[in-house]
Amino acid sequence: MLLSDFVWSRNPRGLHVASIYQTPLDVGRYSQIHAGWAKLLAAGLEYVDDARVLLDMGITPVVRLYLGRYGAGPFDLHLRGLVDAFIGAGVRWFEFYNEPNLGVEWQEGFDPDWRNVDGVIRPLMDNWLLFAEYVVSRGCYPGFIPLAESDTPRYAAVMWMDAFLNYLGQNHFQRFQNVLANGMFVATHPYTLNHFYQDNGRGGARLPEQLNAREGGWHFEYPYDPINQSADPGRTVYGGTALAPYGDPVGLIAMGRMFNERAAQLFGTQAIPVLGTEGGIFPFRGGTFQQDTRYPPYNETSQAEATVAMFEWIARQAPPWFFGVTLWKEDDYYVPTSAPAIGRLAETPPVYKDVPPLEIMDPNWNAQIVGAPSGPGPIHGEPDYHMVILAPGLESRWFFETAQSYWNAFRPLVTTHSELIDHIPSTQSLAVTVIAPPDAVETMRLVIADRYPNVRFDLILAENLDVVREVLNNRVTLNRRFG
């Protein structure tokens, strides 16, 4: 299948309905802004007729099966019947489950955790896969589960996505690869905050009153834009820096990029479509908003300019796999009066996206890594490799000055970069000695022990550096590499 084979309007502009049971839909609100997408919530059949109308208008509906607090419930006959009804109306794009990294999507009192494989990850992936296989069998497109784009430890979207993909790679490799190859898309929720700006031509950002959608210099590539890279060099969607230990997904294309990179590594994909089925620059009414002080603030007027520019950036500059955003949400833009963005979109013709005929699956991918789990393999006896990883704030120079005898005896690789673990193949094993102060222990467990379950996690607390030296010297005396 080619990326260009997906059937949609080619217009990145979209809008999310205000709620369930809002029917008949006021389709004039969608045509007014020249929308190419409409996100519908299907608790029943109330939007089936609206879907037909939208399709006749050249607007592509995306249907989320609305489940309330459904947790990891099954794809049952009732939900299958809803899918069938919308397929009968011409709909091709479907979603099942929504932001499972938030407790509000689960039964009362349940707090989900990506480390809970049997209670959370396994049922979500097993049930979603049944839904996806059915949708693909009908010639339609199942959306991979969208996450709330959080960067806090328990709810971190990057951690959750890795847990999803590693589970599928280790348990359902061929089934998931077949879904990827035959029409799957990735649903994301890119609420960008103020992570965008227009260059002022002097290496800085324009002020809110200077923004102009008709002029160039727009940046929506966070966290890879110059402002962020200058403030925190090397930051990626995976984090990669001390300031972003749990990943940094809060950008327009960040989670879509993460999925495409991970899926390429694990499953041999080349370009999986991504659609923001909620998100955009939220249309606050009145005042100025500056959620991240490294970036300029915005107001109602500059939000309107930036929203027009965002859709044009998607069409012209975003990766070919990024298909658009359905703005959250209809009533926030139209009630009690229309937001300025509505007027700007109405008076500005859309820019259509030219989608290249890229193969979804990479024909040059090395099939020998099919099904390989992420990271090093299990330890049998002694590990093949040994790293000493120093927590942020500790320097390798200190290690060699205070632990020379340990290094001479055991010769571990000493680093401050935990991402080096990714370079150990699954056919080899690894033990990691982590030296960390007490306030960094939980972070190091999250980025190493929890992410790489096969790695031996050997912790040395660095409350007192003299004590660390004594611990390491005692290990040399006992000829014991690990504690």
Please give a structural write-up.
By secondary structure, the chain is α/β, with parallel strands linked by helices. It folds into 2 domains: 3-347, TIM Barrel (Alpha-Beta Barrel); 375-478, Rossmann fold, CATH 3.40.50. 33% of the residues lie in helices and 13% in strands. The protein is built from 15 helices and 14 strands. The chain has helices spanning 28-32, 48-56, 77-88, 117-137, 157-171, 173-181, 226-231, 254-267, 300-316, 330-334, 340-347, 396-402, 404-410, 441-449, 465-478, and strands spanning 13-16, 37-42, 60-65, 93-95, 141-144, 185-188, 197-198, 218-219, 274-276, 322-327, 385-390, 413-415, 430-436, 456-461. Strands 1-2-3-4-5-6-9-10 form an 8-stranded parallel barrel, surrounded by 5 helices. Strand 1 (13-16), helix 1 and strand 2 (37-42) form a beta-alpha-beta unit. Helix 4 crosses helix 5, helix 9 crosses helix 11 (340-347) and helix 13 (404-410) runs parallel beside helix 15. The relative contact order is 0.11.
